[in-house]
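Lecture notes, unit on binding sites. The following record was shown on slide 14. It pairs a sequence with adenosine-3',5'-cyclic-monophosphate.
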Amino acid sequence: AIEKTFVMVKPDGVQRGLIGEIVSRFERKGLKLVGAKLMSVSQQLAEQHYAEHKERPFFGELVQFITSSPVFAMVWEGENAVSVARTMMGKTNPAESAPGTIRGDFGLTIGMNIIHGSDSPESADREIALWFGNEALSYDKAVD
Ligand code: CMP
């Protein structure tokens, strides 16, 4: 099915100048970019985004990191976009992510692993609503 997925270049990826590389990989794969913005993340947005990890020992560190400098938030659309994007990103732990994946090629530690992508269509819906609200997400129609 045609899906939308939420993908975010984390502060480490932005600081290392990897936005273009990452956008390019998704474009060449054939996914369509339907929303994107460079933005600072508030404490509240970070805590909502990572709500499922609230009880984990690394939660504080995670929120601290994601709010430390701007992220590049995106929505990509296409056939099976959620799982396709996950495959392209590689495993969460860069030690286990295969070469050829984004984390496999550019990441070294689990905390600073460059990129986030929704883990299911349900998460994608929730995350797109959280990060893009009612902003128009489209590439084939003029919007005002
Ligand atoms: P992400 O896909 O953004 O979702 C949750 C994040 O928690 C994950 O990527 C990791 O970057 C981060 N994280 C930090 N420390 C750990 C850890 N010890 N185990 C799992 N995830 C961690």
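Take-home: The mean pLDDT is 95.
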